Amino acid sequence: MSEIQKYDEAVQVIKTAILQSQYDAARSVNEKQLMLYYGIGKFISLNSRKGFWGQGAIDAISERLEKELPGLKGFSARNLRNMRTFYEEWTILEQTSGTNEQISISNLADASANITTAITIPNWQTHLPISDGFPLLDFLHIGFSHHTLILTKIKGIEERLFYIRLAVSEHLSCDALKESIARDDYHHRGSLPNNFIRTISAGQQALKAISTFKDEYLLDFINVEELGVRDIQDVDEHVVENAIVHNVKNFILTFGKDFAFVRNQYHLDAFGEDQYIDLLFFNRSLNCLVAVELKTGKFKTSYLGQLQGYLSILDGYERKPHENPSIGLILCKDMNKSFVDYVIQDYTKPMGVATYKTSKDMSEELRKALPDIEDLKKLLDREE
């Protein structure tokens, strides 16, 4: 090994150690902040909900904090109320293992027999006795702004835990998380009609495939009005395909981070027959090719036969030895889910059927909830 190679190796080792240390430090800071906010939220809840503090107390306390600690960020009246909500919505975390740190105000101890004069900051460990399935590491990984957004938008605990896990696994910003909630990913993921259990021999691979795809996708970047047509039915598959190709980064964001775009109109040449797959992707998690066929109308059974033929050629002529069998997805404008779920079971290749919506189909409320597409493009360019 040359001197330069030794130095390169040393640089990479030191660089990795530095980045890991920075990551650990940032994670530690976030965990301590969440614990602090939880303790403050509990303190505010116990004193404000039972009327021990007068009306307007939170606003007054916020103003006093700003005067006594100039430049203090994150303790506005609104954020103090968010801390209270954070505690009240996650009181399940009271059952922690580990010790708590208590900060008392002794000269106020006898001001009232009922008033709470101490802030108890929890010391959450790597596990909680409340439930073996509680994702504590994910819970501590996301920031307070993410938690506030989830608590504001979502009511059920299982759905909240879903978005916490999703925010961590997909490295979602607050805007991206807000968009995911607006798309209602919790209810759409894993519910598309499919035959994966019957056609994928490895059980875990089949379950992973089911959880990878949703039954409906929001393609908000396809603006029908801008295309100069009155109805989506007047737009053929090639127009939709071109819109997806031109916005492929947004499409992959909608599909999931493990998808890599291969190309559109992928040419299959076997037995002297020319065939073209609308969109071909590779999914790193599933380790397989994913063929997507676009249909602007309602689902037809003939689409399944066409897609099964494509998958046979892909597996026989394109699939690498280390890859899993290819998966197909029909993306259409409308379908009868019960009917599709019934007829798809007779096919031998793994396939699913999903629907999509364009900007024309979105409600005004959903339009407002989503970030501007140009802002999203700029953000993606900056991240690259």
Furnish the topology, listing elements before pairings:
Elements: H1 3-48, H2 57-68, H3 77-89, E1 101-104, E2 118-121, H4 136-141, H5 144-153, H6 157-169, H7 174-183, H8 185-188, H9 196-199, H10 203-212, E3 216-219, H11 237-246, H12 248-255, E4 259-270, E5 273-283, E6 288-294, H13 302-318, E7 327-332, H14 337-343, E8 351-358, H15 364-369, H16 373-383
Parallel strand pairs: 3-8, 6-7, 7-8
Antiparallel strand pairs: 1-2, 4-5, 5-6
Plain-language structure description:
It is a single chain. The chain has 384 residues and is of the alpha/beta class. The chain has 2 domains: 3-169, no CATH class; 190-383, Trna Endonuclease, Chain: A, domain 1. Helices cover 49% and strands 15% of the residues. The chain has 16 helices and 8 strands. The protein has helices spanning 3-48, 57-68, 77-89, 136-141, 144-153, 157-169, 174-183, 185-188, 196-199, 203-212, 237-246, 248-255, 302-318, 337-343, 364-369, 373-383, and strands at 101-104, 118-121, 216-219, 259-270, 273-283, 288-294, 327-332, 351-358. The strands form 2 sheets. The chain has a 6-stranded mixed β-sheet. The protein has a two-stranded antiparallel sheet with strand order 1-2. Strand 6, helix 13 and strand 7 (327-332) form a beta-alpha-beta unit. The model is unreliable at 106-113 and 224-232 (pLDDT under 50).
